[in-house]
Amino acid sequence: MSCSRPWFCPSSISATLTDPASKLVTGEFKTTSLNFHGTKERIKKMFDKIELSVSSYDTAWVAMVPSPDCPETPCFPECTKWILENQLGDGSWSLPHGNPLLVKDALSSTLACILALKRWGIGEEQINKGLRFIELNSASVTDNEQHKPIGFDIIFPGMIEYAIDLDLNLPLKPTDINSMLHRRALELTSGGGKNLEGRRAYLAYVSEGIGKLQDWEMAMKYQRKNGSLFNSPSTTAAAFIHIQDAECLHYIRSLLQKFGNAVPTIYPLDIYARLSMVDALERLGIDRHFRKERKFVLDETYRFWLQGEEEIFSDNATCALAFRILRLNGYDVSLDTLNQFSEDHFSNSLGGYLKDSGAALELYRALQLSYPDESLLEKQNSRTSYFLKQGLSNVSLCGDRLRKNIIGEVHDALNFPDHANLQRLAIRRRIKHYATDDTRILKTSYRCSTIGNQDFLKLAVEDFNICQSIQREEFKHIERWVVERRLDKLKFARQKEAYCYFSAAATLFAPELSDARMSWAKNGVLTTVVDDFFDVGGSEEELVNLIELIERWDVNGSADFCSEEVEIIYSAIHSTISEIGDKSFGWQGRDVKSQVIKIWLDLLKSMLTEAQWSSNKSVPTLDEYMTTAHVSFALGPIVLPALYFVGPKLSEEVAGHPELLNLYKVTSTCGRLLNDWRSFKRESEEGKLNAVSLYMIHSGGASTEEEAIEHFKGLIDSQRRQLLQLVLQEKDSIIPRPCKDLFWNMIKLLHTFYMKDDGFTSNEMRNVVKAIINEPISLDEL
After folding, report:
1. What angle is formed at CA 281 by the lines to CA 280 and CA 285, rounded to 5 degrees?
2. DSSP 250
């Protein structure tokens, strides 16, 4: 029979982790923490105002719009004035401090501004300086190492044609001009293959580069309720120039009323920008500092979702991001509403045509949250995964250097699925890879205040290190406790305190959750000791003696113990449960000791049953085995007492409610099946039975090993999705969300641990434990 081995048993870790930098880091805390409050306040203000960078490219196209009343004068002279006043020192118009790989972007923006000034016969000095910039950087036009903005091969040659019409002498080689015009002609006449709808959307999006050749009836099918085409000022301005659509003009005027005399390259972006901010704060581990602000954004987004807001549903990335964040936070978002996830929608969209890895990544992350009955999402999941893997394998050197942050995120998403991504390890990775200059590129480059923000990174580093300093002290306490309780004297027991504490710190990292971490870690150590005692260290007499002692609870003399080992184990369990009972008064206003005693007795009795099966060579049915084995997996004493220390008050009725018991059973069942699948080969070689071998035995030879494993992999997936639904759905639920989150955190821990065949190796686990508990992050080294 399989041992009752808890989930954290296979690897061996040294109990002592050195911390040579602790004194230095403590000193750093005293300095950096002085700015902690100020950083938080600056971030809070960002929720109220989203700042977008000005686009000289789009402003130029708006400046080219003629007045409806007098076509020989500009409709928006304030834009031409802005162009005259905002030329950079090198003669270009572009984002200040631009990336050296974005010269094509600067050339495109500069040419657009030159055309706007030439169109209205003003700014000769600025035009000449701009032409000089183009001349000095003309080699970049055909440089394949330079990043191309979306539609560059259509738009830039289109602007060259317009320059020729305006008798503007461009300082470009005739051969280069002819080559670009030829490439444009080929791109305009080439078919879209299977993605015909995506190509139509793309050609409509780059309308300003097509001009008179555009099928404007087709292009206007993409007009949105706000009057824009794709929320793009340049596309919308081009549409008005050619067909004088009143709604296009209304959109442009509304932009200038909001932004003054220049426009961004995309608007509106408010919903996506705020959701990106909420997402970034959560992914960096600092969202708990902004609960009020987050709640406002989520409530507002959900209201927009229910109203079918176009800003959400017209964009794949925004829709997927909204779906994921709303579902993760307990809002009821229906798959029926999420039509963006239909089978061919993404591949036939503008983002799909452009192979937009950012939109695909958001879609992939959203698909990780499917419930058991949402098979449509599961089918799309494999296609999106394939799309992202292809994108990683086809990344150009230029794109790699420009978008290393998104490439890193794609790599992490594919290698660390949400259900196997320990929060604290994920936060550390995200901090190290967070890009504080996250320039986004559409038809031109732009920046947004809530994307790639330095204050986010600064607060995340400070918060991580502060939490870590607390955890280091807690771990020292755990080490002392092991010695004080004489657990280190038990020769049969593995010393697992480092890993047990790590499992708590990796999921319950907020400073105020110290009692929950200590309960989790101490009970984790004790379940390991008890498991070894039942598996190899104790006789049946000792096992029965231990159970009887816990049932009696208060024991007066040493005569009651049949061995020193029983005395040590009983005393450690007794003192730990008593400590939990005492601390529970502060959190719950009552003593929960009796409930924790019952949890421990359930575990011990299940372990005894398995020990008796093994000694008697019994072969239980699979149902009999799972009824016992999900309890003997030993999650009960670890997770259930910790529920009392995460914030909400739990009455006896709630603590014993079927909903909570079901959360525990599903979590434990999933964990047990994971263990039995991954340890099947090893345990078979040792002559032990587990769920997989019992399934094969009771099938009467009808099931092969491969078929049995596939069967249990399907059960694990189903149990995990069922648990996700139980945790996230709030309708008819009486268990507080912080309590339900403990079960999902445990599932993530289990999937992380069992990601490999039989758990982490000793070195791998030692490294991740050190990263969480002992290795601070230096902001200067990022």
Report:
1. 115
2. H
Q: Which fold has domain 268-459?
A: Glycosyltransferase (1.50.10)
Instruction: Mention every residue, 6+ apart, whose C-beta is less than 8 A from residue 239.
Output: 207, 216, 219, 220, 223, 229, 245, 248
Secondary structure (3-state) at 448: strand
CA angle 453–458–459, rounded 5-degree value: 100
Cis peptide preceding 417, ω within 30 of 0: no
Token duo for residue 9: 């048993």
Mean pLDDT confidence for 489-506 = 90
Residue 214, judged by CB atoms within 10 A of its CB (0-12, 13-18, 19+), counts as buried
How confident is the model at residue 338, as a pLDDT? 61
Class of domain 56-259: mainly alpha
Extract the tokens encoding 612: 């008796």
Place of tokens 């010269």: 103
Write the DSSP string, 601-659: HHHHHHHHHHHHHHHHT----HHHHHHHHHHHT--HHHHHHHGGGSSS---HHHHT-HH
Question: Rounded to the nearest 5°, which phi and psi values hold at 440?
Answer: -95, 150
Collapsing DSSP states into helix, strand and coil, what is residue 593? Answer: helix
Question: Hey, is 63 helix, strand or coil?
Answer: helix
Q: Widest CA span of the chain, in angstroms?
A: 107
Entry pTM:
0.92
The fold for domain 485-756 equals: Farnesyl Diphosphate Synthase (1.10.600)
Q: Per residue in 78-135, pLDDT tens?
A: 999 999 999 999 999 998 887 888 999 999 999 999 999 999 999 999 999 999 999 9
Long-range contacts, 77-81 (Cβ 8 Å, 24+): 78/256, 78/260, 78/261, 79/116, 79/256, 79/261, 79/262, 79/263, 80/116, 80/117, 80/120, 80/122, 80/123, 81/261
- What is the C-alpha separation between 724 and 378, in angstroms, rounded? 15
The rounded distance, in Å, linking the Cα atoms of 396 and 322 is 30
Q: Which residues contact 580 (CB under 8 A, 6 or more apart)?
A: 519, 592, 593, 596, 641, 644
Given the structure tokens 């706000």, which residue do they identify?
A: 226
Lowest mean pLDDT among 112-126, 250-264, 635-649, 697-711: 697-711
377, 335 Cβ separation under 8 angstroms? yes
The DSSP element (H or E) to which 5 belongs, if any, is none
Domains 268-459 and 485-756 share a fold: no
Gyration radius from the chain CA atoms:
31
Residue type, 112: A
Handedness of CA 644, 648, 654, 660 (dihedral sign): negative
Give the residue among 508, 456, 425, 502 at the shortest CA–CA distance from 287.
456
Residue 377's closest CA among 328, 343, 330?
Answer: 343
Give the amino acid at 728: L
Question: What pLDDT, in 10s, does the model give residues 717-771?
Answer: 999 999 999 999 999 999 999 999 999 999 999 998 887 655 545 677 778 888 8
Q: Are 511 and 470 in contact (CB under 8 A)?
A: yes
Q: Which residue has the tokens 């800003």?
A: 311
Cα-to-chain-centroid distance, residue 402: 21
Secondary structure of residue 446 in the 3-state scheme: strand
Identify the CA nearest to 210 among candidates 219, 197, 221, 198. Answer: 219
| Element (DSSP H or E) covering residue 416 | none
Judge contact between 317 and 365, C-beta under 8 A.
Answer: no
Give the count of beta carbons closer than 10 Å to the beta carbon of residue 624. 14
**Would you state the structure tokens that stand for residue 223, as one six-digit string?**
């007009």
- Helix H segments across 284-367? 291-306, 310-313, 316-328, 350-353, 357-367
Environment class of 240 (CB within 10 Å of its CB; exposed 0-12, middle 13-18, buried 19+): buried
Cα(568)–Cα(581) distance, integer angstroms: 20
DSSP string, 542-562: HHHHHHHHHHH-----GGG-S
Residue 74 φ/ψ, nearest 5 degrees: -70, 145
Q: Is 447 helix (H, G, I), strand (E, B) or coil?
A: coil
Give the residue extent of every domain in the chain: 56-259, 268-459, 485-756
